[in-house]
Each structure stands twice: as C-alpha cells, then as structure tokens.
Amino acid sequence: MSIDNLITMITSSDDGGADRLLQYLYEIQYQYSFIPEQAVQFLAEKLSVTQAHIHGVIGFYSFLHTEPRGDYDILVSDSITDHMLGSREVFDRLCSQLDVTEGQPRQDGRVTVATTSCTGMCDQGPAMLINGWTITGLDRNRIDAIVELVESKTAIEHWPGEFFQVEDNIRRQDILLSDDSGDGDALRAFIDQGADALLEQIETSGLRGRGGAGFKTGLKWRFCKQAEADQHYVVCNADEGEPGTFKDRVLLNSYADRVFEGMTLCAGIIGASRGYLYLRGEYRYLREPLEQVLTQRRNAGLLGNSILGHDRFDFDIEIHMGAGAYICGEESSLIESLEGKRGIPRKRPPFPVTNGYMDKPTVVNNVETFMAAALIAINGADWFRAVGTEESSGTKLLSISGDCEFPGIYEYPFGVSVNDILKDCGASNVQAIQVAGAAGFTIPASEFDRRIAFEDISTGGSFMVFNQERNLLDAVQNFARFFVHESCGFCTPCRVGSSLLRDLVDKVHSGHASEYDLGEMRNIGLLMRGASHCGLGATAPNPVLDTLEKFPQIYEQRLKHSGYEPAFDLDAALQDARDITGRDDAGAHIRTES
Ligand SMILES: Cc1cc2nc3c(=O)[nH]c(=O)nc-3n(C[C@H](O)[C@H](O)[C@H](O)COP(=O)(O)O)c2cc1C
Ligand code: SF4
Question: How large is the average pLDDT for residues 214-229?
Fold first, then answer.
C-alpha cells in the first residue's frame, strides 16, 4: 500500500485531534517500518501541529523511527532475567548468523537486530519482539529456525504458531485469580446499591493501588468524583514496564472482563463516560483479543449507552498503545502520552484526580487494582478485609523470575514472608532477591523473614531471585544501564546522574574503580533521590545504594589494588600497540605509570 493510502486509511478511521498523534504514528511505524517525512508533513497539516512537534514525539519513543528498519525488525530483551536465561548468547548468535551490526539495517534492508529494555516475558525468556510481535523461549534451535525464515523471506503470518505462544504460568491462586463471578455482576451490584454505597465499600475494604505507590483507591475515586467538571475519565495503567513484572499481562490475557468491569464500576461511581486502557507497545499481541472482549461487552450491554439498561450509565473504553517508553508508566507521563505527546512527567500538584487527561478529573489505576475493585463490589468489603494484614488488605500478585524452578504468577495474601515465597517457587541457595523491579529493593538472605506488605516490603509485583552463583554486580550494571536508557531527560539530576552512576558501575565492574568512586556513587545516588523531578529519577539509584549498603563486598573485591584481575588485559594492549606501530617500545610508558 502506498504511504498516501496508508495514512488516509489510518487517519480516516476516526475524527480525532492532536491527541491521536501517537496512535497514528504507532500504526504507520508498524505498517511501514518507519515514519516517512511525507507522513510527518501530512499529520502536521491534519492535526494543526508543527512538524517539529511531531519529530519531538517520534524522537521520544523507542519504537518509532524516521529511518527504515529492516523488513524483520528484531528487538531482543535486555532485562537481567533474560540475560540470566541466555539472551546475550541469543543476541550474538542472531547478529552473527544474520550478519548484522547492532541497530543497523542489513545492507539489503532485510533485517535489523537490536535490544529493548524488557519485554515482560521474564518467566519464559529469553524473549524478543519481531515487528512488534512477541517470541518467547529462544534457544539455539529456535534462533536457527528464525534465521532461516528471515533469509527465505517467509511472512511472519506463516511462522510456526508455537514461537508466539505466551503462557500465563499461574502457580498460585487466591481470592482474585480463583474468581468465578459472572460478567456484569459488579455492575449489577453498582446498580442495586448505588454509587455512594459502593464507594464506601471500596473505602472500607482498605484497597490500595497495586501499581507500586499504594495510594488508597477509594480515596482517589472520591477526590475525582468530588472534582467538578463536564467530563471525568478512567484510565487503566497497563504500561507494565518495570523489569521483572508481568502480572498485568496475565490479567489482561485471562481476566480482561474483570479488569474492564472494574473500570466501568469506577466510571459509574465517579461519573465518567470515557475510559482508556494504556497498553504497553510490547503487548501488541494482546490488543486484538482485548478489542474482542470490548466488543463482546458492548454486545452484552456491559459497555456503551445505558449499561444494563440503566439510565445515564454510559461508558466506553478505548485501547491506546504505548511505544516503548518506561517512563509512560508514571501516571502524569502516561496522561501526556494519551494526549499524543512526549511522555514528560507533569509537575504535581495538581494531581490527575482534578487535572488529568485533557485537564479533566481522571482516575488512573493499575490493572490489578481495577480487578480487585470489581470483586469487592461483588463480594463486599469484609470479604476483602478478611485476607491480608491490617494495613494491607487483600492479596498481591507477584511476578517471580530468575533463579527458581517455577517462575510465574503467584497470588499471596499480604503478609507472606520472603522465605515462604522462595520455598514455593523452588528457589534454593539464594543470595538476594530484587523486589519491586529495577528501582526497588535488594534484599539479602538475612532479611528473608521480612513480609510482602505496604508496611514492610512494598511492591508493584516484581520479584527476581539471584542465587549464590550470580555476580550481583551484573544486575546492578544492568539496572544502571536501564535507567540511562529510560530517563526522559527532562531534569538534570536524573539525566546526568543516571549516566554518571552507569559509568561508575562500569568502572567498578571492569576493576578500575577506587574507594573514592564508591563515595561518589553514594553522593550522586542521594542527590538523584532528593532532587529528581519524578519517581523514576528518585528511585533509579536504589539498586546502587542498596547494594553499597547491604552487599559492600561485591564492590570491595573489585576495587583497584584489591587483588582483582581487571578485564582490561595490559599485556594484550601492549602487544596491539607494538603490532600497530611496529615499535618494540610502544606503550612502555603505560607499564611504568601503572
Ligand atoms: C517511573 C514509573 C513507572 C511506573 N510504571 C507503572 C506501571 O507500569 N504500572 C502502574 O500501574 N503504575 C506505574 N507507576 C505508578 C503510577 O504512577 C501510578 O501510581 C499508578 O498507576 C496508580 O495506580 P494504583 O493506585 O492502582 O497503583 C509508575 C511510576 C513511576 C514513577
Ligand atoms: S526524574 Fe528522570 S524521568 Fe523523571 S522527569 Fe527527571 S529526567 Fe525525566
């Protein structure tokens, strides 16, 4: 299809304004492999924005490009758990067999191979995306088959279906995942009991947000309901970009009805008629099935006008795609992105509950939070409060990956101990766990009697296990690089601080750091924590600060003069110098100085 026809087809499917920009760019990228200048000019005119604005948006999102990618655009997951499963070997094998340089389209334009932060498949990696579609369980055989399919120009639709299989891997169910309520039950409860009574149930249940921060859900909904405006919005945060987190993927795959029901319930309570599911670009494969669930719900009278025949209960949901920016999980960046812009976090206050999407009162909640809210509407606040702890009612879904026999999704009542979790997932000889993702906490074995709860270890759901054989510094290095890539660059403490931290971690890793560098790491980390504009920069130094405090030996044994043999081979470098210059004394001064 010509670019003219493609753009006309994409943009004629709705009468949106500039807020549709990211969605148009997303479609053009995936159907055309890049955003041609012609498309930029066309969109600038249609949406009455400048071409510079559009280039700014394209430049912000890792999945959008102004130069063509290969016909097969491969992105191998770079998350630490994929590394532990062999993703570096996968990447090297792909590059060598396909004869490509990282990130560069091959000369014939057939293929590009690069890395991406985390594909959300930590329980079944190594994983990759090809033209946006997820492939899991990469091993030598699968890689060789992929190389053959690429070289034979086989269309992706004809690739073996099992390559694209994504398993739920649900290992433990509790009150949420064992739900057997019927579609519409929460909405019938809402219609029977009314908005005020149900809001009270949500408040009494003690439900707190499952996306990480743990804000009280009932209170958030009440603030939003009380904010006067002609329109309110409900937004489901399915950006799930935190390395090691994949629980929302499973909820959207197998419990989407409950999630949409929670959103609809929220709409009824706060008086919204429009909602958005912000789906991370890496979960492209979920989009079509989710659209089908929405259609079924419309047909069943559970979405649309006069829901379940109830007057003035009108609500519908639209799916918006993210395009590879972890920061867009932060709620104000997410709202910017929903409005079609770069995902730069907003200044807060004002908060989204009063000034959110399109400056209107907006509730943003995590996928799991909406599902829990739907079940509380059906079963009541006491049912929910009966599980968990005083301050953390209900259950928490954990995404468990790394060194364990049974990676996957585990639902536990809040208050479960780390020791019990490790037993269940078949982890032994454990050195440390990383909870709450790259920005979370590194917990040593001496603290494994601690509990998962807002009052102890609080988490959005990521739980990565590292056994004694692992070099924890590899994980710290991976996280430091992740934050350099994902910092939006808006504020200096995070933009510069994350790069400095990355460089210092690299310096330690290669055996060239001194005690002074460790002090600098602490100083930079504390400065980022205190001075960053948003939660990303404030939490990015956590893995460095945590390990400096709790695992000082991983740094000390690598310090210069500690006896550690650095990766840099001086003799080999001197030989290179002699070979290049043809002089026997080349580089001799280096040995003298060192
Ligand atoms: C850098 C960053 C990334 C975030 N990513 C997510 C995410 O992927 N999903 C999510 O629900 N919340 C994420 N959050 C938290 C959101 O800002 C927000 O608190 C949450 O969506 C509110 O929903 P909840 O109250 O149901 O947890 C992130 C926060 C930060 C600072
Ligand atoms: S802290 Fe980082 S991610 Fe947040 S606004 Fe500053 S640069 Fe952007």
Answer: 98
